């Protein structure tokens, strides 16, 4: 009989283990979230991340080793971003009808998110590198990660990921507030827009299907801080 | 399915190539997405091919954030030093952005009379 430790030392170097663990953890997170009626605090991503974090720390596995397996999932963020074209196109009639308010809300919301996040973080003495990742947080998550990776092509990506997930956690808890949004007439777009301004994906999981369908990716403000950072 | 995946990857590739070639401060996939929106508007065939697979990918979008999220364990020292400040920045800025976005939307919708429904 082979020693369990030996099997583990063999398997732990295999991408299969962490790819399987990632999907399993998300599965568990999704079931738990479903079991409590999709409460915002029981976010599947948050649960999966906590489970995996405990597992990594417990087994002394470095993040780099974990990412060997998880990269296959991570890679799909690119194709997923491209896929956002479909809901965007689908909502084109709605967007066209409300083009001005949507654009105005996106610009105002984005600028507010960036400025306020930077101001608060700076007030608490967060350093420059981290500040730049905070700025990226106001884009939708797959885009934010892309922007952040672009801005800090190498070396700082783990920091970016940190910013990314904090954003996701906060988003899961906050998005329901998007309901406080507006009066009767503009409600659908306004809710969808603001939820997406911040966290379209998790926002979409939380708000009901009708509102959640609207997906918007803001790209206007990127150039500003892309330039600053390079 | 293969055709749709190939197309999505090609749009991404085109976006990456364009972003690199023109040194644009935009991620390649975002350019790919913009190009795909145009493509979907122009070609019903492209629509029929890409839509089911794109919906499939997006249905599990939040799973894709898990690997990046686990990156937290590589940043425990950052969290220890700046965690509360970051969290506060995220929460406060999110609330502010929701409020400002919503107010702007309703205000502009009222001014332009362009609210839907």
Helix share of residues of chain A? over 70%
Tell me how many strands of chain A there are: 0
Radius of gyration of chain A, in angstroms, nearest whole number: 19 Å
Whole-number radius of gyration of chain B? Answer: 20 Å
Strand content of chain A: under 5%
- Number of separate structural domains of chain B: 2
What is the makeup of the main sheet of chain A? none
Please give the alpha-carbon distance between the first and last residues of chain A.
56 Å
Structural class of chain B: mainly alpha
Structural class of chain A: mainly alpha
User: What series of H and E elements makes up the topology of chain A?
Assistant: HHHHHHHHHHHHHH
- The multimeric state of the shown protein is heterodimer
Give the helix level of chain B as a range of percent.
over 70%
Average pLDDT of chain B, rounded to a whole number, is: 84
The number of domains of chain A is 2
Uncertain residue segments of chain A:
148-230
**Morphology call of chain B:** extended
Residue stretches of chain B low in confidence (pLDDT < 50, at least 5 long) are none
Per DSSP, the total helix count of chain A is: 14
Q: Biggest interface and its residues per chain?
A: A-B, 116 and 77 residues
Write the layout of secondary structure elements.
The complex is a heterodimer of chains A (230) and B (117).
Chain A: H1 4-11, H2 15-35, H3 44-59, H4 63-75, H5 77-83, H6 85-90, H7 92-97, H8 99-123, H9 128-136, H10 141-151, H11 157-174, H12 187-206, H13 209-212, H14 222-229
Helix pairs in contact in A: 2-3, 2-4, 8-9, 8-12, 9-11, 10-11, 11-12
Chain B: H1 2-21, H2 28-42, H3 44-59, H4 66-70, H5 76-112
Structural description of this entry:
- The complex is a heterodimer of chains A (230) and B (117).
- Chain A folds into two domains: 4-75, no CATH class; 82-229, no CATH class.
- Chain A is built from 14 helices and no strands.
- Chain A has helices spanning 4-11, 15-35, 44-59, 63-75, 77-83, 85-90, 92-97, 99-123, 128-136, 141-151, 157-174, 187-206, 209-212, 222-229.
- With 117 residues, chain B is mostly helical.
- In chain B, helix 1 crosses helix 2 (28-42), helix 1 (2-21) packs across helix 3 and helix 2 packs across helix 3.
- Chain B is extended, with a radius of gyration of 20 Å.
- Classes of the chains: A mainly alpha (230), B mainly alpha (117).
């Amino acid at each position: 009989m082979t020693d369990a430790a030996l099997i583990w030392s063999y398997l732990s170097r295999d991408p299969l283990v962490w790819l399987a663990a990632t999907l399993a953890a998300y599965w568990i997170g999704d079931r738990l979230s479903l079991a409590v009626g999709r409460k915002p605090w029981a976010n599947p991503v948050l649960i999966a991340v906590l489970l995996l974090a405990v597992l990594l720390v417990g087994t002394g596995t470095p993040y780099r080793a974990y990412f060997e397996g998880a990269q296959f999932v991570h890679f799909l963020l690119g194709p997923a971003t491209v896929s956002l074209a479909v809901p965007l196109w689908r909502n084109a009639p709605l967007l066209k009808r409300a083009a001005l308010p949507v654009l105005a809300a996106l610009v105002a919301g984005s600028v507010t998110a960036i400025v306020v996040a930077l101001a608060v973080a700076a007030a608490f003495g967060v350093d420059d590198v981290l500040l730049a990742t905070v700025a990226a947080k106001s884009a939708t998550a797959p885009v934010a990660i892309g922007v952040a990776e672009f801005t800090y092509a190498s070396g700082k990506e783990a920091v970016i990921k940190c910013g990314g997930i904090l954003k996701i956690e906060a988003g899961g808890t906050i998005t329901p507030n998007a309901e406080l949004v507006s009066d009767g007439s503009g409600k659908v777009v306004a809710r969808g827009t603001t939820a997406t301004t911040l966290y379209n994906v998790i926002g979409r999981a939380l708000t009901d299907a009708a509102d959640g369908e609207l997906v918007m990716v803001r790209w206007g403000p990127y150039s500003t801080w892309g330039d600053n950072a390079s | 399915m293969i055709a749709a995946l190939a197309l999505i990857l090609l749009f991404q590739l085109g976006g990456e190539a364009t972003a690199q070639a023109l040194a644009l401060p935009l991620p390649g996939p975002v350019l790919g997405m913009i190009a795909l929106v145009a493509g979907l508007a122009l070609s019903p065939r492209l629509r029929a091919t890409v839509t089911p697979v794109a919906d499939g990918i997006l249905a599990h979008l939040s799973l894709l954030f898990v690997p990046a999220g686990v990156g937290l364990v590589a940043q425990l020292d950052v969290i220890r030093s700046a965690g509360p400040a970051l969290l506060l920045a995220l929460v406060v800025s999110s609330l502010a952005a929701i409020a400002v976005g919503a107010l702007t939307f309703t205000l502009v919708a009222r001014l332009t009379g362009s609210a839907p429904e």
